[in-house]
């Protein structure tokens, strides 16, 4: 018997497990690739610590707001974590994410009261907007950047129906 080994034909009869069709898990989170519209570059203008000033009107009382807001990379060029520490408004944390497929941003917000909200976001050279479309309680934020990009004048508005908007409060962010 030519070609017969000490193992016999058993070596050729071994069943091999099928090759995996899934790629191996990366050891590090990959850096995302963004569209030609450079979403990450737009987010970079927010990165840093900002002094915050504002005025809240609650009934007959007006409260002056002061504090800081920091924007830091959670995942470079993809996710930003936002932390605010103010006197009047509750402490809050938000995460801003870039979506390169739809060329958009989303922000998820949470504060010390237990509030959790999702906002659609836009950001370009001169304007930053947030919108929440919850039936019965709609919100929008419109921020305008100064020419040098170091100041943002912003207004929060609310509406119960999306037709009549009422100013909630104004804010001014100044980059430290």
What value does the average pLDDT take? Answer: 85
Share in helix: under 10%
Give the count of structural domains.
1
Low-confidence stretches: none
Q: Please state how the strands of the largest beta sheet are arranged side by side.
A: 1-2-3-4-5-6-7-8-9-10
* H/E series: HHEEEEEEEEEE
Topology-level CATH name: Lipocalin
- At the fourth level of CATH, the homologous superfamily is Calycin beta-barrel core domain
The secondary structure category is mainly beta
* Basic shape: globular
Task: State the separation between the terminal residues, measured CA to CA.
Answer: 86 Å
Largest sheet, in brief, is:
10 strands, antiparallel, barrel
Tally the helices: what do you get? 2
CATH class: Mainly Beta
How many strand segments? 10
Query: Beta-sheet strand percentage?
Result: over 45%
In the CATH hierarchy, the architecture is: Beta Barrel
Specify Rg, calculated over alpha carbons: 26 Å
3D architecture notes:
This protein has about 180 residues and is mainly beta. The chain has a single domain (about 25-175), classed as Calycin beta-barrel core domain (Lipocalin, Beta Barrel), CATH 2.40.128. The protein is about 5% helix and about 55% strand. It has helices at about 10-15, 40-45; strands at about 50-60, 60-75, 80-85, 90-100, 105-110, 115-125, 125-135, 135-145, 150-160, 165-175. Strands 1-2-3-4-5-6-7-8-9-10 form a ten-stranded antiparallel beta barrel. β3 and β4 form a beta hairpin.
Quick overview:
This protein has helices at residues 10-13, 39-44; strands at 48-58, 61-75, 79-86, 92-99, 104-111, 116-123, 127-134, 137-145, 151-159, 166-175.
């Amino acid at each position: 018997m030519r070609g017969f080994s000490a193992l016999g034909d058993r070596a050729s009869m071994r069943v091999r497990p099928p090759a995996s069709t899934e790629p191996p898990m990366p050891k590090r989170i990959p850096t995302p690739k963004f569209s030609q519209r450079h979403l990450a570059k737009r987010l970079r203008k927010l990165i840093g610590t900002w002094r915050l000033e504002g005025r809240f009107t609650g009934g007959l009382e007006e409260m002056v707001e002061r504090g800081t807001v920091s924007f830091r990379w959670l995942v470079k060029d993809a996710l930003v974590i936002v932390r605010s520490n103010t006197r009047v408004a509750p402490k809050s944390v938000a995460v801003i994410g870039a979506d390169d497929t739809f060329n958009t941003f989303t922000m998820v917000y949470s504060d010390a009261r237990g509030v959790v909200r999702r906002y659609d976001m836009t950001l370009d050279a001169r304007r930053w907007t947030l919108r929440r479309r919850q039936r019965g309680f709609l919100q929008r934020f419109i921020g305008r950047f100064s020419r040098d990009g170091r100041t943002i004048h912003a207004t929060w508005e609310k509406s119960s129906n999306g037709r009549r908007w009422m100013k909630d409060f104004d804010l001014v962010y100044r980059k430290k």
